[in-house]
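Why do we care about 3D structure at all? Because function follows from shape, and shape follows, mostly, from sequence. That is the central idea of this module. The next example makes it concrete: a single protein chain, its amino acid sequence, and then its structure expressed as tokens.
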Amino acid sequence: MIKQIRNLPRWVIFTIDVLVILAAYTFANLLRFNFHIPDNELATIYKAFPYVIGVRIFFLFFFKTYAGIIYYTSTEDAQRIFIASTFGTLIFGFINFIAHHFQGYYLIPFSVMIIDLVLLIFMMTAFRLFVKIIYLEISNSKKIKVNCLIYGTSDAGVIIKNMLDRDEEHEYNVIAFIDDNLKKSRLKIEGVNIRSGNDIEKIFEEHTINQVFIAQNISAEKKKNLIELALKYKSQVLHVPPMNKWINGELSIKQIRQVKIEELLERNPIRLDEEEIKKELCGKIVLVTGAAGSIGSELARQIIQFNPKKLYLLDQAETPLYELELELKELCSQEKFEAVLGDVRNYERMENAIRTFQPDIIFHAAAYKHVPMMESNPSESILTNVLGSKVVADLAVKYKVGKMVMVSTDKAVNPTSVMGASKRIAEIYVQALDKICAAKNETRFVTTRFGNVLGSNGSVIPLFRKQIEEGGPITVTHPEITRYFMTIPEASQLVLEAGAIGKGGEIMIFDMGESVKIADLAKKMIRLSGLELGKDIQIQFSGLRPGEKLYEELLNNNENTLPTHHEKIMVAKVREYEYTEIKQHIDELIQLFNTQNNMAIVAKMKAIVPEYESNNSVFEKLDK
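And the structure:
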């Protein structure tokens, strides 16, 4: 029955419109004569009936007023009815002129014409709205009731409301539009109140809000507060894409997505010194190692925007590198970049690449990064993280590369794992090498150090998301474990900025904000997924993994920092090493790869990095 009401056949609508025409004309005459029509007027009225019906039906067909689907009745339908009715009335005026000229009287009194016009427009429009309301009432009685807020009063916000009104499965009740402009408070949009952003918690207290639609760009801090508040009241937060990403200019319900945990942790956009970065990269030849990884691929996306002469993307992972190549082809011409398969551990391959490409700057992001994996495979960690970095650095000097920027990690500070220690050794080597190069005015080396990257390959968030999709449990190593987090674009932007402002020899550390308790992160992801901890899914604590520590650090106890012109970048003051001495130690460490003796390898690493003390690892015995 609902579908029958919604999709009334055209002939039914047309028949009702004809009846409305008869009713409007009849009622117009009754009003004209105060419901007492004189007998001498009846003949004229009857005579006019065929003209009225004929003219009105002609314009019904001409403007197709019966063709619209009743359920979607809009201002366009009302406009079509108005135009058709007005044209008909103008024709009546012309008929009156002819009748008066030849017969001496008006066929339809002008007062009747005006009353008939008003009544006809009103009755035809009211009929359509009445059917639409009946349909909505019947269908809404079977729909799921949803109370919601729309954050934003722009065109997008209004379009969202109209889209929600037409949803076939849910009856959306928009409690309020939210706008931070206090001048708009207490105004209304389509009968819905506009409330200030300061009133959101009060609204949550007054109403059961099921969903919040974010329909405009808001600061990271406001978004974070809104999501936290929604989680507190068990409400779902949905993100609406900007209008320029709508399909053919129209918003689809499928484009509206739940907010991601990354949006809860993200911060306001970084203000980059784009002129300085442009000076560093524009028209230059750039090589990115580890280009297929999370940071390397984002560096590639960012660098290509600064119009380098050529961007070389080097990685030993074939499939991810191919996928990055396809992505960049959509952003720029194939001549602007080249994907190169190669392993930073292979001196001959890297020498051929750097000698051929003659890069002006190298961003070295190639590394093994998973702590438990490296704890089980120390020899591989020194081969890639130490030898690989040494190979790239040595070749940068040999072929007179202007600058090399090495991507490091906070796990290099007071390392408790093989991975962290291997990255610290790489830091030590390039910093010692920079002192030699500085004296000769040759290649300069800058190191960047930051914490965990949100959504990177193998990071905790994709793991938690996968575990939630599979019904759990979510595994957390320790209830008190904390980590610093940064988004991939944010980390990559800061690497570019640090590379641009670094003169050489610095270890640049990034402001990572507040550390996040991983257990709390898991709980928020569960709630964002619409699940309830302890009822729908569980958290299990599995114990610290080998080499893992509870709290990450960006500086060790003997370090301090100096500010830079960028508030989020600082220079770490670290212990310095003599190049000749450290090179000998590192060469000896690399030679130990051939022994495949993990204890001997790690013992040598501890000799090079005295602050390296293993945690929850078989290598703890070496500390005793």
